[in-house]
Fold this sequence. Notes:
Blueprint: H1 22-40, E1 43-44, H2 45-52, H3 56-68, E2 72-74, E3 88-91, E4 97-103, E5 107-114, E6 119-126, H4 132-149, E7 158-164, H5 172-175, H6 180-187, H7 191-196, E8 203-206, H8 208-219, E9 228-233, E10 237-243, E11 246-247, E12 262-264, E13 270-272, H9 279-283, H10 288-296, H11 307-330, E14 334-339, H12 343-360, E15 369-372, H13 379-393, H14 397-401
Parallel strand pairs: 4-7, 7-8, 9-14, 14-15
Antiparallel strand pairs: 1-3, 2-3, 4-5, 5-6, 9-10, 10-11, 12-13
Helix pairs in contact: 2-3, 8-13, 11-12
Amino acid sequence: MTGSSFFSVEKNTDGRSGGTTQAESRVYNERLIISLVRRHGQLSKTDLTRLTGLAVQTVTTIVNRAADGGVLVRREPLRGRLGQPSVPYALNPEAAYSFGLKIDQRSADLALVNFVGDIVAFERTVFNCPMPEAVMSFTRSAIAKLLRRYSKVRPDAIAGLGIASPFYQWNWNMETAITPAHVEAWRQIDIRTELDRVFDWPVYLLNDAMVAAGAELMFGAGIGRADFVYAFIGDVLGGGLVLDHHLFPGRNRLAGALGAIPVPAEGGGTVPLSQVASLHSLADRLDVSKAETIWASPEDWGDLGPALPQWIEAVSDGLAHAVQGAIALLDVDNIVIDGAIPASVRKEIAKATRRKLARILVERPEPFSVLEGTFGHLGPAIGGASIPLLVRYSNDKDLLFKE
């Protein structure tokens, strides 16, 4: 399971070349229109002509083809305006489906997601510490089970399987309780390649926090946001980066790794942000019984006592410091904060971060937004499912035309 084997080119039906052919331009225009409809919810042909700059006939041809193919659906005409009623088009939720597999050191989640990000079905298995064969066995059986249960999901409508895992990186034995033997087992296998042999659709492998950012871009708080940095508070702090409405993985598929950014330490000096803003850093403030709660019940932690507000203050301090650097380097306008944490805790972290950034960025010409994420602990699984849909239907030129 290596970083170099992060997706399946051979099963990607779109031709790739060193340049842009007429066919690739057509595909790009089609995906541009689909991406705009996703971003705005619904758009008419007139709206799409204005937004794309394409010829009216080109837009009409693409929209009609997409509607005939079941990718777009026609909505009721919008009346009350000058001229003929405007007919908007929206995405058809049943046009495509995708599987997302999240793996961490405690569990594996498999989500079947439709074209608009609704979870159609969900399966979970729990491990003390997963071995590759156990994860692959769970994935094969869970997908077979879901396809039998949901027979309306046509095989040709499945865009692929996206794997979201921190095992993409090899710092787990240092950051968590996973043993060196387990790390070595994952080093010796390319799980993407192994699962790619099983299924007819492409299989992708990326860092879990990065793909969770993809979930927000496609289905959540990032819809309509041109750029944002993304923070996922889990066992370690992960991150992702969206620029110009596109998920930006970076040359080594590690862009947006907020957890590695140095931030001020309580006793002086600096530490990586992940040491301050992670579930492990919270667990270190708790006794053993309460510490176990934060992993066993990500939607409700109950009463953790004064350690929780102290931790929230430390997390928000670290995030505010990291965001300063991101703004200076990338000129982004938003951060989306999520994690395997209860919604009430996420709200308090966002509120504290927003308050601190308001003081720091008081002279910034454009406002900076601190947004709450949408999916909580399900973010990586839904994010995994978002990647095949991004590859197959987005207008990202890097995804379309480059291997």
